[in-house]
Structures are given as structure tokens and as C-alpha cells.
Amino acid sequence: MAAKRVLIVYAHQSSGSFNAAAKDAAEEVLAAQGCTVQVSDLYAMKFKATATAEDITGEVKNADHFRYAQETNLAWEEGKLCADITEEQCKLTEADLIIFQFPMYWFTVPAIMKGWIDRVLTLGFAYSQEKRYSQGIFKDKKAMLSFTTGSHESMFSSNGINGDMNVTLWPLQNGILHYCGFQVLAPQIFWAPSHIPSEVRGTMLEGWRTRLQGVLGEKPLYFTPLDCFDREKGYQLKPEVHEKHATKEFGLTVGIHLGLALPPNNQMKAGV
Ligand SMILES: Cc1cc2nc3c(=O)[nH]c(=O)nc-3n(C[C@H](O)[C@H](O)[C@H](O)COP(=O)(O)OP(=O)(O)OC[C@H]3O[C@@H](n4cnc5c(N)ncnc54)[C@H](O)[C@@H]3O)c2cc1C
């Protein structure tokens, strides 16, 4: 594998946590392969989680009706975004792969990581009306979620109490990562590390280390390409694409399911 640049966006308060161990393993294994690895340790950085007018240096355009996306878009064009956002955007620009390492909070990322997403993925820098999804700005980069849960895997299955993890992952993987164009690699899920024996945790970490050896060569998850949708008709699926799939057993993806059964593991495995 050619030397690549990796950014780990990491959100855990404790260096003794399982998340810290997963982050350390990624740093070590990727660096041993010759990758340049940067870590944004969000709690250590006391990363600001709220999207506010303070994210812009100097005057905002319309203080009476402040609109975050439009104001930060302008500030990005004029080089007026505040330093912590600009620094993260530089790291992101340089990276070939971004790994988000976090404990699942309320079925999603912790607030501090959501703040990173809200503030760093600025309109213009990370997405625009023309450049999104499969034609998105970061289409030459890869991104993946690596996270721990409190729940066991059975609870996040299609007949488990929390519902199907594929559904839970759709907003994060489609609505954020793929929206910005990233090729989304299959998530790395460490199920319930607090509730399993120590040796099972060790085995999970070993599995992660093995995966990391080839992670940059992995095939991404499937998302429906942008050109399957008709811009003139409110970005609905083109009739010919719809017709082609109408007789199939499964929908295209978890979200674009056409009223059919969800394609199993569409958000968990490449090639489905
Ligand atoms: C606000 C909030 C919301 C939550 N929402 C959800 C939710 O929606 N769904 C859900 O499933 N869960 C939820 N949880 C639970 C949360 O996801 C888990 O507590 C978390 O993922 C556990 O990961 P950790 O890194 O914090 O584990 P830790 O408790 O830090 O670690 C687990 C165990 O691993 C051990 N360990 C550390 N390093 C190593 C190592 N190198 N090798 C082997 N073992 C090691 C630790 O000593 C510990 O015994 C929520 C928790 C909070 C606080």
C-alpha cells in the first residue's frame, strides 16, 4: 500500500477506555505501514461543539437573522473562519482516509463529534448544491465509522429491541459522509466492550488490527449514484431506474428502498 495520510477524529474522555485502545491500535498499525496519522482528540482539544456566529472572525453579514450555513460559506470564501475550524479543514484536505472513533451516544455520535461535523464540514468546503453524494467534494477520500456500543449485537438486529443497525447508520453514513462525497468503508463496530470478558475484548482489538492492514484498499459501501435521480423532478429516482428495480426483492439501499425489503447489511458490508 502506498503511503497515505490518515486523520482520526477521536471522541472519548478517557485514555483508559476501549475507544482509546482502538484509536491507539489504528495509529500504530497505520503508522507501521508508512501512513502519516494525525489525531484530533476532541475532548483533549476542548473542541467547541456549538455552531455559532463566533465561528466567524469579524463582522457577520446579517446579524439580525444569522444563518450559519450561508455566513460560514462566505467566511470560508473570504478566509474568515476561526482558527480551530480552519485547522481541522487543513487536516481533512490532506487526508486520504478519515476514521471517526467514538462511543455510540443516543444512537449517534457524541455531541462533541457532532459539533466537529457541524462546524468543520462547511458549505462550499465540504458540499454544495452541485457537488454532493456520488459527485461530492470528497469523492477521492475514504471515511469510516469505528465505534463501541453499550448494547449487544442481537439488540441492534432487524428483530432486536433497538432495531436494525443498518437503519441507525443511514443518517451518519448517507446523510453526512456520503453526502460530502466520501467513499464510505464498512463500519467497525465493537459490540458492548463493557459487558464482555477481557479476552473477547482482546480478540476484537486483534480483529481491528488485522483489518487495518488492508483498510485503504477496501471496497466502499454501495450508495445509489446521483445520476440515478432527476434534478428537474425534485431529485426523485429516474423512472427507468425505478422500473428496473421494481421487480427486485430488495430496495436499492436502506434509504432508497422503493417500498421493497431493505437490502440486508447495506450499511454494514461492501457489495450489498
Ligand atoms: C450519553 C450516553 C449515551 C449512550 N447511548 C447509547 C446508545 O444509544 N446505544 C448503545 O448501545 N450504547 C449507548 N451508550 C453506551 C456507550 O456506547 C458505551 O458505554 C461505550 O460505547 C463503551 O465504550 P468505552 O470505550 O467507553 O468503554 P470502556 O468502559 O472505557 O471500556 C470497556 C472495557 O474495555 C476495557 N479496556 C480498555 N482498554 C482495553 C484494552 N486495550 N484491551 C482490552 N480491554 C480494554 C476497559 O478497562 C473496560 O473494562 C451511551 C452512553 C452514554 C454515556
Bound molecule types: flavin-adenine dinucleotide
CATH class type of the largest domain: Alpha Beta
Mean of all residue-level pLDDT scores: 97
What is the name of the CATH topology of the largest domain? Rossmann fold
Q: Work out the helicity level.
A: 25-40%
Name the shape in a single word.
globular
Q: How would you describe the overall organization of this protein?
A:
The protein has 272 residues and is an alpha/beta fold. The chain folds into two domains: 5-219, Flavodoxin domain (Rossmann fold); 222-272, no CATH class. 31% of the residues lie in helices and 13% in strands. It has seven helices and eight strands. It has helices spanning 18-32, 68-77, 83-94, 111-120, 165-178, 198-213, 239-246; strands spanning 5-10, 36-41, 97-103, 142-148, 183-184, 188-190, 229-230, 236-237. Strands 1, 2, 3, 4, 5 and 6 form a six-stranded parallel sheet that branches. The chain has a two-stranded antiparallel sheet with strand order 7-8. Helix 4 (111-120) links the parallel strand 3 (97-103) and strand 4. Helix 1 runs parallel beside helix 6 (198-213). The model has no long low-confidence stretch (mean pLDDT 97). The structure holds flavin-adenine dinucleotide.
Helix/strand layout:
Layout: E1 5-10, H1 18-32, E2 36-41, H2 68-77, H3 83-94, E3 97-103, H4 111-120, E4 142-148, H5 165-178, E5 183-184, E6 188-190, H6 198-213, E7 229-230, E8 236-237, H7 239-246
Parallel strand pairs: 1-2, 1-3, 3-4, 4-5, 4-6
Antiparallel strand pairs: 7-8
Organism: Cottoperca gobio (Frogmouth)
EC number: 1.10.5.1
GO molecular function: dihydronicotinamide riboside quinone reductase activity; metal ion binding; NAD(P)H dehydrogenase (quinone) activity
